[in-house]
Amino acid sequence: MKIKGPIRSILYAHKAIRTELDVLRDITEKLDLDADFDEIKGRVNFLSNFVDSHAKAEEEVFYPAVDELRRDTSKPFNWDHKLEEKHFQSVKETLAKIKRYRNPSNFEGLKWNVYALSATLSAHAQKEDDLLVPILDEEVDPGKQGEMVGKFVSHIPPHLMEKGVKWIIGILSPEERVDYLGIIKRGIPPEKFDAVTGWVRETVSEDEWKELLNRMA
Q1: Nearest Cα to 94, choosing from 43, 49, 41?
Q2: 6 phi, psi to nearest 5 deg
Q3: Which alpha helices (DSSP H) does the chain contain, by range?
Q4: Which of 98, 120, 142, 201 sits a CA distance of 20 to 30 A from 44?
């Protein structure tokens, strides 16, 4: 089903999350005792912070709207968020043990925790894409959806906003970038969108930037 309203912006965040989980699994498979763990630690911390902020925004903006249409629909999704927090904590704790003790036995534990996180979080995002987003798209008018997207974005802490936008833009295709930015533009004040476009220009190549401007014109 094609999502037509502004609510589809959440699909792009979910795509970025799933892509990052793929990267984490790949990095984990290649780790050994001589590895530098700073990269995976940094990626895990960023993804954990982003997902936590994303989840809280969902719980405060999207889930109540869904529950008005389908009573208690959000309950299992809230439970998923709690499970994801536990998996993130397990990954962080295992990484700390490996970095401190360099014990080979902990590598299997790290792989298990990363794969558990990936399976849980990927499935959660897919369920939202397949179940919640279509409900909101079909039964909430586009203007109201736009207001919801604006509120959602306002829940993202400033220190995460810049890095999050750059991260998502770096993962999206040219067509998706145009669509994503168009939705964001309609949901936030002009001065904030000016900041967003500045971050985008720092992320893409000069040719990609020119193409983006032409597509958005």
Answers
A1: 41
A2: -60, -20
A3: 9-30, 38-57, 63-69, 75-101, 105-127, 133-139, 142-154, 158-171, 174-187, 190-203, 206-216
A4: 201
The number of distinct structural domains making up the chain is 2
pTM exceeding the 0.85 threshold for the entire prediction: yes
Print the domain residue range for 103. Answer: 6-156
Distances (CA, A) of 179 to 48, 51, 126, 187: 26, 22, 20, 13
For 28, 31, 97, the CA distances from 37, given in Å and listed in that order, are 10, 8, 11
Sign of CA pseudo-dihedral 66, 68, 71, 72: positive
DSSP 204: S
User: Does residue 69 sit in the same domain as residue 133?
Assistant: yes
